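for the writeup, i need someone to sanity check this before i put it in the appendix. the sequnce is what the collaborator sent (i think, or maybe the updated version? ugh). structure was predicted straight from it, no edits. if anything looks off just tell me and ill rerun, i have time this weekend
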Amino acid sequence: MSLFETEAIVLKTIRLGEADKLVTILTAKKGKVKAVAKGARRPRSRFGAALEPFTHCNVILFDKKPTVLMRMNQADILHPFIRIREDLERIGAAARMVQLASAILPEGEANPKIFSLLQAGLGKVERNDHLEWLVRVFEIRCLKHAGYQARLDHCLICHNELDAKPVYFSPKNGGTLCGSCARTISDPLEFVSSGTISLLRLAARMNWAGLFRLKATPKMLQEVKNVMDAHLTYVIGRPL
């Protein structure tokens, strides 16, 4: 049993008993964990608004091993991301991010890169209007930091460069196939233009400022969405 302090982002809360909450949080030190916040639903709870979805807070947790659930002793708001909760589209974008982080990470396994990515992503959702592109970039980078980055530099079957058209994305293979190799398999594939391939590559490595200067057509954004939806569904095992 041990008491520890860490930064955390609230992913999900559900009611527990008459006055408690079961809180799923992504922590900087312990990864995704579940904790019971005693009395969190009482009017004068010491937790206040710290357990609202998307909130970035500093928490003190009591790890009651060998039990799975921790106990939350304290939570202090670092950034409430209030503007997100005031706009339905921002709520949708932020919800997509926290759902992906929750779905792709096992409990109790620290991943500082995904924690930092989620914190930065929520900050961008709060201040930026390019929400669809923000979500796609978050998905691409989240998969990269979780070890599921798509291979987009060559055909995964014949290993040739992707100079010839058309090009397809294979969720099962986790990357691109040339037109010739795509005809040899029966798995579902997504068509990807050369411009979209370049966009996907840049999204995985460019800084945020550079990403917002990229010129992506509606068709390219739709192709990126199709690729990411298919990739995520295969990795997670269900539609997000």
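Residues 2-142 form a domain with the OB fold (Dihydrolipoamide Acetyltransferase, E2P) fold (CATH 2.40.50.140). The chain is about 35% helix and 25% strand.
thx in advance!!
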